[in-house]
Amino acid sequence: MKAFPTRYLIFSDLDGTLLDEQTYSWEAARPALEIIRRRNIPLIFTTSKTLAEAARLQEEMDIIHPVIFENGAGVAVPEGYFRRSVGARQWDGYEVHVFGPHYHEICQALRQLRREKRYPFRGFEDMSVAAVARCTGLSRSAARLAKDRRCSEPILWQGSPQQLEEFGRELKARGLKLLQGGRFWHVLGDEADKGVAARWLLKRYQEEFPQCWRTIGIGDSPNDLELLRTVEVPILVQRSDGSYLPVDGVGNILPAPGKGPAGWNRILLRLLRGETP
To answer: Which DSSP string corresponds to 95-140?
Structure first.
């Protein structure tokens, strides 16, 4: 594989960032996406979505690069992308590295906690495809892909904040954690997050292509914070109400001028053209 003609490496959240929060459209980001494709800049989807969901979007956008999926619980690299294999697992044309327990183990722990402690929540495992479609706004075909999970479980919490804190402690005792996303809480391995996965993948790029990579991270939700703390150029896009996520401990945050994919497009066009944001 040829070395990339740029040192940019872009890690991007999807829902509410590259994708519109309500319609899931990426059309407003098309101008910046075309430049990214033309320059062969690695655009790494860094998302709470499943690998199956991300792969479909990659096909739509004509993108062939690694994916950080399920909030950093897994990294998928297209077979043959790097010279050396990145892991023993082969899934759907990708080589996959997983951080933490697999889906059946997580669901087993959740079922046990609900049975023993009666915690009030509903996970994707409990929902039909139609139910997932209703609570997410996805089509049935997209909801089916959202249920194809490998290493995390989204839940709708139906209890009090105090119960949620206790639930989080119980998960931690089992090597799991809660992570707040845009619509759901996510249960995954306690050492997994988007920042961990981004650092792991950056190391692979540096090993394969020893040059000075400049990392950009783009997000809008609490589950993006560790990614933003990891990259050199952290960017926040506006949420649907026009606000920005409150951020502590992240220096040099760039606010994108706009909501979702429109803000994503504007800030990346400026960066790629060498303009001061």
So the answer is: EEEE-S--HHHHHHHHHHHHHHH---EEEGGGS-HHHHHHHH---H
